[in-house]
């Protein structure tokens, strides 16, 4: 869209809108088609990420038991699993669907209430609007 953007994290409606956290528009009857499309694409991206983490944990089940390793080792362990996982995925190493049986998607605790409006960054709306325009220009999908 002609403006350089930095990386962003995907959040749900409970997170404050920041220029580094994208969150969906609040669902109501006033959303435009463009905003609905943005929410849909954000939700799709979020599900891709969840699936990737699920596959990572299924392939490297040591990540399910990280509570029995030292905190100093943990970042190295996670990084090693991510690197090995990406190598396996890049080389079409077969993924055994049975591995998923031991790894149910776990819901991480999330805030129950949306973040107060005072925590939201006004500049972040510009970022979300640029992403909305970008998604609109990409067409359906």
From TrEMBL:
Molecular-function annotations in GO: hydrolase activity; metal ion binding; nuclease activity
Entry-linked Pfam families: DDE_Tnp_4
GO cellular component, as recorded: nucleus
Domain DDE Tnp4: from-to ranges: 5-86
Coiled coil residues, start to end: none
UniProt keyword list: Hydrolase, Metal-binding, Nuclease, Nucleus
Localization: Nucleus
Cofactor(s) this protein requires: a divalent metal cation
Chief location category: nucleus
PANTHER family: PROTEIN ALP1-LIKE-RELATED (PTHR22930:SF236), PTHR22930
Family: Belongs to the HARBI1 family.
Annotated protein name in UniProt: ALP1 protein
Organism: Malurus elegans (Red-winged fairywren)
Gene name of this polypeptide: Alp1
